[in-house]
Amino acid sequence: MAALFTRYSLVGIINTLVGYSVILACLYLGAGDVSANAAGFAFGLMVSFTLNRRYVFGTQGRLASGEVIRFLVAFAISYTVNLAVLWAARSALGAGNPLAQIPATVSYSLMMFVLSHRFVFAGRS
Q: pLDDT tens digits, the chain, 125 residues: what are they?
């Protein structure tokens, strides 16, 4: 489990840096914090699926029936948690504050790991 979480963390760091860069770019270009957050997550979604499927959970070959659907369900749940944390952080730090994205992103990452391991890719590696 430690090796799995280490690989997930490495992929998560890469994906988080990419997603957070998109968020910051959107904020710089004048987007609101929620739309910037959505753009960052949308950009990283396909990268996350590919890296987690192959590198983290070791799933090879063709996509299993329902694998993408399970991933999207896990994403929807994780993203909902992310938004709830973002709204709470906005209350504390102010709308548009980039620091509000950090606890939101961490909550997403932890929820997505659990769901990916137990639901999306369980028994497929």
A: 789 989 999 998 888 888 899 999 999 999 999 999 999 988 888 889 989 999 999 888 888 879 999 999 999 999 999 999 999 999 999 988 999 999 998 899 899 999 999 999 987 65
pLDDT tens-place string over residues 58-74: 888 888 879 999 999 99
Residues 6 or more apart whose CB falls under 8 angstroms from that of 73 comprise 119
Distance of alpha carbon 56 from alpha carbon 125, whole angstroms: 9
CB neighbours of residue 84 within 10 Å: 12
Pairs from 71-80 (Cβ < 8 Å, separation ≥ 24): 71/116, 71/120, 73/119, 74/112, 74/115, 74/116, 74/119, 74/120, 75/41, 75/45, 75/112, 77/111, 77/115, 78/108, 78/111, 78/112, 78/115, 79/41, 79/108
Closest by CA to 57, choosing from 110, 117, 6, is: 117
3-state SS assignment for residue 124: coil
